[in-house]
Design brief:
InterPro entries: Dimeric_a/b-barrel, NIPSNAP, NipSnap_domain. Pfam families: NIPSNAP (PF07978). Belongs to the NipSnap family. This is NIPSNAP family protein. By secondary structure, this protein is an alpha+beta fold. The protein has a single domain, classed as Alpha-Beta Plaits (2-Layer Sandwich). It has a four-stranded antiparallel sheet. The longest helix is centred in the first third of the chain and has 20 residues.
Length: 106
């Protein structure tokens, strides 16, 4: 099992607008292809205007297969274009982690 941690940095004041658009359009599509996310979080202390979300996959091949299928969906490509046009995001970062042998999450 692996966990993908994605961090989006939004423009000041854009977090609520980004989350509203994502919840309506992006989340239903991602759930269709990627399953239920582990969680979504916003920063309160430290680096502000960040949105972090976590996704669970069986392995890198599972992640690649599911994300490739989503990328082929015209609805997802339309959503990405609308997000780019909205100019809410400054940057995106993605990290992949695997659990330790003693982790409760396997």
């Amino acid at each position: 099992m692996i966990v993908e941690i994605r961090t989006y940095t939004c423009r000041v004041g854009s977090v609520p607008l980004f989350l509203e658009a994502y919840e309506k359009e992006g989340l239903p599509l991602q759930r269709e292809y990627l399953g239920e996310p582990i969680g979504w979080f916003v920063s309160e202390v430290g680096s502000l205007n960040e949105v972090v979300h976590l996704w669970r996959f069986e392995d890198m091949a599972d992640r690649e297969t599911r994300r490739a299928a989503m990328q082929q969906d015209e609805r997802w490509r339309t959503f990405l274009r609308s997000m780019a046009a909205s100019n809410h995001l400054i940057s995106q970062e993605s990290s992949i982690y695997r659990p330790t042998s003693f982790s409760k999450m396997q």
